[in-house]
């Protein structure tokens, strides 16, 4: 992955993808793997917005049973299996414990019935998953004592036990997205971050491509394409309005989905579902309240998710300290032993997600249900223009298949069947993850810590040697940044081979440096100095980069 803007002017592509979140990235991989020529541009860094800030859950769709939506249950389960199969280093099963109370809708009997029905509907969820450690077990019940043994602080008066169901969890949403980008580039896709699509080029009502601008250099250029696929998410409407004066889309509502990171580990392997303060208005069969989740992730605990309808510009949202305190109060009410305070919060993450229609001021919100895939020749009379606005990270690969099927139809091309549900992506050529991780740790260079090797194997999988070559290049690159386990070699690799252009690209998306908490001044400055040398920054540029990253840690810095 090397950023080469000049390649975009040398050809006419079958499809130009605008927007490098997970939906645009998966569509790019889908297109190039099926024999189409494709260009991808992203105005910021790859997967820097909603994709990077998702709750790190690969949903299997059990919640959709409450909506009697079996189609979505099946789709979600199938895509969870695909992620576990093609990226075993970055996705693993996650057990979630749901406490039960009494013998009504909150009771064990109803929950057990729901889990049994889910297991039946997703009977083929482990098909093609040879690694037993990446298979999704069936749900099972726990006794009252077993639940209290794991979570002794739960309200025990009417507690009857609990149920354990499984979903998937990402080690790093950003690295998962980058693995798809790597795969596309390895198959000759032309991609670049920090390239803003400014306008769609047309001859009459037929698309010719886009005009674009390199935001790092200011250079403007055109990218010719037979089809433009708009995957810009919450920016999609604005992009179309720039080109045509109207968005050519149904009015979309977006939610600011937010969660926060607690800088202490959760005891044991289970995530815990606790009752929040809102209900699901769309549920056909519903428990008393929607759940919030306390989720173990690395050495941290993730807490969320909260939804707030966002009506402003896509880049203009935040999470205030007042909101964080309200979130904390709700969590502490659901599980008092946590005693969470603002001092426990090391980071918050938020992104804009396609949402349902809700009345102003509504408390019990209707969530987004399905992605939008629009052929603008049928809606707006613009030929060669398609928009895909995704609703959930889990469905990105499947929605990419649908989008590229439509692209091929518009091109009048017969292309290969999709193979992306089976083809391991970059780093995913692993037969047995746990066994190969043990081997990697056992055979590591003595100068490399076990913690560092584990993180490297998770982040890079079977392509680990691409990073370790820098580790062996010099003694300096073999040392960690500050008091962290992140190697200086990872920084150099990110710049030279993964298009890292800003300090935040490395801190938040290429490495584990700042994904959970502030890494410390020493580590941050060492990382900035390495990038300054690689990218020839001035001292003032380096200072701005450091200040920008520090501003993303308002709680702890």
Short description:
The chain is built from 15 helices and 17 strands.
List the total number of helices: 15
Radius of gyration: 23 Å
Give the overall silhouette: globular
Number of domains: 3
| CATH architecture type of the largest domain | 2-Layer Sandwich
CATH superfamily of the largest domain: D-Amino Acid Oxidase, subunit A, domain 2
Helix content: 25-40%
Mean pLDDT: 93
CATH fold annotation of the largest domain = D-Amino Acid Oxidase, Chain A, domain 2
Largest sheet properties: 9 strands, mixed
Give an overview in words:
This protein has 557 residues and is of the alpha/beta class. The chain contains 15 helices and 17 strands. It has 3 domains: 9-50 and 174-251 and 370-411, 3-Layer(bba) Sandwich (FAD/NAD(P)-binding domain); 91-168 and 253-354, D-Amino Acid Oxidase, subunit A, domain 2 (D-Amino Acid Oxidase, Chain A, domain 2, 2-Layer Sandwich), CATH 3.30.9; 433-550, Helicase, Ruva Protein, domain 3, CATH 1.10.8. The protein has helices spanning 22-33, 70-86, 108-121, 144-150, 173-186, 236-244, 321-334, 396-411, 433-442, 450-460, 465-471, 488-497, 503-510, 521-535, 539-550, and strands at residues 12-18, 38-41, 57-58, 91-101, 140-142, 159-170, 190-192, 195-203, 206-214, 220-230, 254-262, 271-275, 291-297, 300-310, 345-354, 372-375, 385-389. Helix 1 (22-33) runs parallel beside helix 5, helix 1 (22-33) crosses helix 8 (396-411) and helix 14 packs across helix 15 (539-550). It is globular and about 70 Å long. The chain starts with 11 loop residues before the first strand and ends in a 7-residue tail after the last helix. The mean pLDDT is 93.
